[in-house]
Amino acid sequence: MKCIKSLLTALYMMLWLGCGNPSATDRTAALLSDLDATLSQRDYYESLRLQRIDSLNRLSTAATDAHERYELLLRVFDEYKSYRYDSAYAYARRCYDEALDMGDEACMSEAKCAVSFCLMSSGMFKEASEMMASVRTEGMSPRQMRTYYSTYSKLFQEEANYSGVEPYYTTYTQQSDRYIDTLKTLLSADDSEWWSQTGAQHMKNHRFEEAIVTLEGYLSRFPDADVHERAMVMAEMAWAYIHTGRDDKALDCFIQSAIYDTQSSTREITALFFAAKFIAQQGDVDRASSYAKQALDDITFYNARQRKIELGQILPIIEQERYNALSLQRNRIIIAALLASILFLVVLAAIFQMRRLNKKLWQARQTIAGRNEELRRVNDDLIEANRIKDVYIGRSFFVNAEFIEKMEKLYLTVDRKIQARQYDDLRKTVNLTALEKERKQMYAAFDETFLNLFPTFIEQYNRLFDEKDRRKPQDEKSLTSEMRIFALIRLGITDSERIARFLDYSVHTVNTYKTRVKNKATVENDLFEQYIMKIE
């Protein structure tokens, strides 16, 4: 009897542990309940934002003063920038058009900052950098200057986060810091933005304890701050706690940030999926999966490519946690079934549970296997396409070049024989005109093939020069001599001797062309070929 009781006790413990027991504190459990309640009201919070947007649109339509209309459109952009990417971009462009109609250079610059913000959200950092580089700060108000510096700071930090490797991460972070330092000169310690920017600056430079103190100071000094700003501050604090090894506090901060995100109807990348990751690690995979799906719906609604990529990096982790949890449950049930083998009814219950979990595990495996297979196929296609392109272009062009070189030598040999009067009539039929024609045809074929692969090459190449130094080929399907040199470089052919052989130039001529072109460019000489390689 005692043996049966011991087996039943062991079986109970195995099943209880196998079903999962999230190790949340009372505070965390209360916050999760608040988050669930807030998420159940997301439609209500979204309706409040839509009402504000509708009211601002009606006011802008009725406005007769151009500056008033511009300010109202800018407020609509502010409502959309964390809610809907494409709408935010559309209103940023409308702000710019309105400023352009007014001829207000300061407002045009402010609108360019808004457009750059949208480009950053979509991962278009090059375009965002070009847009910010065109901003003129003369005549901008203090508010507009704060927007300018904060946008530039965000741009460099986004690039740092995207690169993630040294020395680029440190370089971009230092550039971001410089703009924050300048921004803080326009602020005082009584401004909430001063505290939030200072806390973010501490985070970037890995001063995590100082960041926590500063961000806590923000929360205590500005209890009535904007809900969206409080969400961002709580998220920053969560990352600071993670880096100091306090994951329990980090989870609480992510949950509070997710609550604020829901209340502000934020659809850009939110704290919800970071909270989902922590919850999955604690074993509550169902709740984590629900939160992750909600976060994915938010990002899909926001519709910015860069944010989708960022979320895509975390979803496999949550799915893996879910897979591990199901595997763990299955293993524990197997052990429990062995312990309860003498208890027929308990064995039946264990087998039933095991089959149910195996079905879920199979579904999870199928999902992961399907996604991995799809990624493998896409990667194989890309590798094959690149291999064919590189080999075909490289071999075909240089075989032609070598063929022409051989023919040229043949012509010279024949010519020497004619001079030696070995074949009197041969010299009349052999000349270099046909060879030159073949070479021109080869260049034309190269130009056409290259422009088919890189149709915007001429346009993007000319963007590297001032208007007066830009060149247009005679034919839209041809390249100039200088362009043809850098077209070969874009294909990965950087050796000046090989370029010279292909173009029938001396190495000195090729280097002279390259130096002359780089000296006219608006970018540094050392960076010019890097910009060429970025052309798609």
Describe the structure.
This protein has 536 residues and is mainly alpha-helical. Among the domains are: 45-139, Serine Threonine Protein Phosphatase 5, Tetratricopeptide repeat (Alpha Horseshoe); 141-185; 432-533, no CATH class. Helices cover 79% and strands 0% of the residues. The protein is built from 24 helices and no strands. Helix 6 packs antiparallel against helix 7 and helix 16 (305-339) crosses helix 17. The longest helix is centred in the last third of the chain and has 76 residues, at 344-419. The radius of gyration is 32 Å and the shape is globular. The N and C termini lie far apart (77 Å). The model is unreliable at 11-24 (pLDDT under 50).
Percent of residues in helices: over 70%
**Cα separation of the termini:** 77 Å
Helix run count: 24
Strand content: under 5%
Mean pLDDT: 82
| Molecular shape | globular
In sequence order, what are the helices and strands, one letter per element? HHHHHHHHHHHHHHHHHHHHHHHH
Largest sheet: none
E-strand count: 0
Runs in which pLDDT lies below 50 for 5 or more consecutive residues are 11-24
Structural class: mainly alpha
Q: Kindly provide the radius of gyration, computed on alpha-carbon positions and rounded to a whole number of angstroms.
A: 32 Å
